[in-house]
Specification:
Helices cover about 60% and strands about 10% of the residues. It has helices at about 15-35, 40-50, 65-80, 85-90, 95-115, 125-135, 140-145, 155-180, 185-215, 220-240, 245-255, 265-290, 295, 300-330, 330-345, 345-360, 370-410, 430-440, 460-480, 495-505, 520-525, 525-535, 570-585, 595-605, 620-625, 655-660; strands spanning about 1-5, 5, 420, 450-455, 485-490, 510-515, 540-545, 555-560, 585-590, 610-615, 635-640, 665-670.
Length: about 700
């Protein structure tokens, strides 16, 4: 059709207009459905139904939807593996395996019975149809991610169960497909197992090794992003070559890169942003475009098949979640979350129905006929809607519970955590900001303060240079969706400027550091550090990072006797636990028995499940406690104390000479917060002021 010389033929074929229309859907579907209190994922699917060939025929599901849809599907599985709490996953791996077996076996058994008794299908057809019920796709996972609930136990169990049931469902698909193409020989299965096992070993051991090397050599944001995506599709492609669905490879890559991409890092923020803004919506719209809702009103056998498939798939998934809840005595909201995440049918279901539809039996009929094909797309629509609504409701309840819990943990009048990062050396800004991002309280979007102190007698361009440093720090933090308060001030010296800023902005901790090439004496015991320690009772962390913090493999913490009596004992332990959780590092403590027991109890209260080990050494002076060997790619943390503190040891005065033995290692010295005090007068510093 022509209008004023403009071609208005449908479906639209011009790539510009196709992409524009998709962007309009991605933009306005959430805006419209948020007003209706409907999860916007449903809007993406319904929009695909509306503009697709079974709707208004505005768009055709061409190669662009195939490409971006595949990327979106891989992205969903990759993010699911990337955002998992690996420590919680290890702790709940048996629960995940049990749920995976339940959510596979219950739909299989119920599906085979209903397919043969109610629909009159043969055994092989019933098995393939049941495998479609058994598999599921994490369509609703972006909702969990948006609420920040990826570390919930129910989410971890659901993701682990997804890997199990999808793998088993794809094995059933490969078995039935092999039966009809002549490849299902014993040697075929032996080779399949060998190929998949070999590729999994490559992904598990080679991919993290490559990522560590790359992240240490290249800090460019674009290069890191592209590198990660390349690994995702390499993993998916290798698994596909082995004969299994590539989504398993994407999920496995997410799991092995989990500890190398901290949850609050700029790289994680970029990965989530691109996926949730473009690729995942493209996939959801593409799913909607294959759905023909007219089969619901056409009546006859197609409607019966669609109803049976939808009811059996939904009920069997709910039953699996219910049984899992009862076995492990979980809450009703955890059951709702598990059911919501596991009910949606899409990826493996589509693969199974398309393969089954192409198989022609000896009598000329298709293994899965047109009624099953139409019933499948209807089942996809309804299960996706149910899954999205259930996950949204469960996520809101969890979010409200966490909000109530955080209100109890931080009642009105209790001090909110705020970390100060003095920026003076452009070479250390990125390391210090990334360290602060990892140890901060990620329940809030703020809590960081970047400071540049200008000496009154400094050069004329000092303010301009300082503001550039502050902008760099803010840019790094904003990439992780964290706001930074930027302060540029004049003062008589840097230490005084930091102390005044701490008091004026209610700062609770300071992270400082110097260039890696600086000597140990200069780095930790120059006038800046000593004057700062005299001027504030707040926690001070002095760091020298030889490698990026996200590529570290472990943290060795040396704790002096009586450290548990310091006011800031739980605060620095909280920071180390956060660091371990974000980087996947194992905490190893070296302390006496009583201090170690206090460390255990405190960690159990603030971060239960933290991976840790102990090295108990009684009646040993601090200088001998520091006689340790730091493994490659590990961080050595020395917890010391200011003079006059409960845990102060005279050996702290000799710390510069002790640290000479670790000149090539990553180091951190923590001065815990102590009780607010009057300035101490000493013979070496009779005034006691910074």
């Amino acid at each position: 059709m022509d209008f004023l010389g403009i071609n208005l033929d449908f479906p639209i074929t011009d790539p510009t207009w196709i992409f524009l229309l998709v962007l309009i859907i991605i933009l306005f579907a959430p805006l419209l459905l948020n007003r209706l209190k409907i999860p916007h994922i449903i809007g993406m699917i319904l929009a695909g139904v509306l503009v697709g060939s079974h709707g208004l025929n505005i768009l055709e599901r061409d190669s662009s939807f195939e490409l971006f849809g595949q990327v979106g599907l891989y992205y969903i599985m990759f993010l699911a593996g990337l955002e998992m709490d690996m420590e919680d996953f290890r702790k709940n791996k048996v629960k995940g395996l049990v749920f995976g077996l339940l959510t596979f076996l219950i739909p299989m058994l119920l599906g085979i019975w209903t397919s043969m008794q109610m629909l009159g299908y043969g055994f092989v057809t019933a098995v393939l149809l049941s495998s479609m019920y058994a598999s599921h796709t994490l369509i609703a996972y972006p909702i969990v991610s948006r609420y920040g609930l990826s570390r919930q136990r129910s989410v971890t169990i659901s993701i682990g169960g997804t890997a199990v049931t999808v793998t088993l469902a794809l094995v059933v698909l490969a078995l039935i497909s092999g039966m009809y193409n002549g490849t299902a020989t014993p040697m075929y299965w032996v080779m399949l197992v060998l190929k998949v096992s070999l590729i999994c070993l490559v992904i598990v051991f080679v991919f993290p090794w490559l990522a560590r090397i790359f992240f240490r050599k290249y800090d460019d944001a674009v290069m890191q992003f592209v590198f990660v995506l390349a690994l995702v599709f390499l993993g998916g492609g290798l698994i596909s070559l082995a004969g299994m669905e590539g989504i398993l490879g994407a999920f496995l890559v997410g799991m092995v890169l989990n500890t190398l991409i901290p949850k609050v890092s700029p790289l994680m923020s970029r990965l989530e942003f691109v996926g949730n803004a473009l690729f995942i919506p493209y996939f959801l719209i593409g799913v909607g475009m294959i759905i023909d809702v007219r089969t619901l009103v056409s009546g006859g056998e197609a409607l019966k098949v669609a109803v049976v498939m939808t009811v059996v798939a939904t009920f069997s998934k709910w039953l699996a979640a219910f049984v899992t809840q009862k076995i492990y005595r979980m809450s009703s909201n955890e059951r709702k979350m598990i059911f919501g995440l596991s009910n949606a049918q899409a990826a493996a279901t589509l693969a199974a129905v398309l393969v089954g539809h192409e198989i022609i039996l000896e009598n000329g009929e298709r293994l899965l006929n047109d009624d099953v094909l139409n019933g499948t797309v209807v089942m996809i629509l309804i299960t996706c809607i149910i899954s999205t609504i259930e996950t949204e409701v469960a996520s809101r309840r969890f979010a409200m519970d966490e909000l109530s819990s955080s209100s109890e943990d931080n009642p009105s009048g209790k001090e909110k955590e705020k970390i100060l990062i003095p920026v003076a050396n452009p070479d250390t800004i990125e390391d210090l900001v990334n360290l602060a991002l990892i140890i901060r309280d990620n329940r809030y979007r703020d809590g960081l303060v970047a400071l540049n102190v200008i000496n009154d007698s400094g050069p004329g361009n000092s303010e301009e240079v300082g503001r550039r440093y502050l902008e760099k720090a803010a840019s790094i933090a904003s990439a992780a969706d964290v706001m930074v308060d930027r302060i540029c001030r004049y003062d008589m010296n840097i230490a005084t400027g930091i102390v005044h800023t701490i008091k004026e902005n209610a700062v609770t901790g300071v992270v400082i550091g110097l260039h890696q090439k600086a000597g140990v004496l200069d780095s930790f015991f120059g006038s800046l550090t000593s004057n700062l320690l005299k001027g504030t009772y707040r926690e001070v962390m002095v760091a020298r990072l030889m490698i990026p913090v996200n590529t570290m493999k472990g943290i060795l913490v040396v704790v002096p006797s009586k450290a548990e009596y310091e006011v800031g004992f739980s605060r620095w332990l909280t920071h180390l636990c956060r660091m371990a959780a974000q980087t996947g590092c194992h905490l190893r403590f070296r302390a006496d028995a009583h201090t170690m027991e206090c460390i255990r109890i405190t960690i159990e209260n603030i971060a239960p499940g933290t991976a840790m080990s102990v090295d108990i050494v009684d009646d040993m002076p601090f200088s001998e406690l520091m006689s340790v060997t730091v493994a490659a790619e590990h961080l050595l943390v020395a917890v010391v104390a200011r003079q006059g503190s409960v845990s102060y040891d005279p050996a702290f005065d000799r710390l510069p000479s002790i640290l000479k033995n670790f000149q090539s290692d990553s180091l951190m010295v923590i001065y815990p917060e102590q009780a607010e005090r009057q300035d101490v007068m000493t013979f070496s510093d009779p005034i006691g002021n910074p």
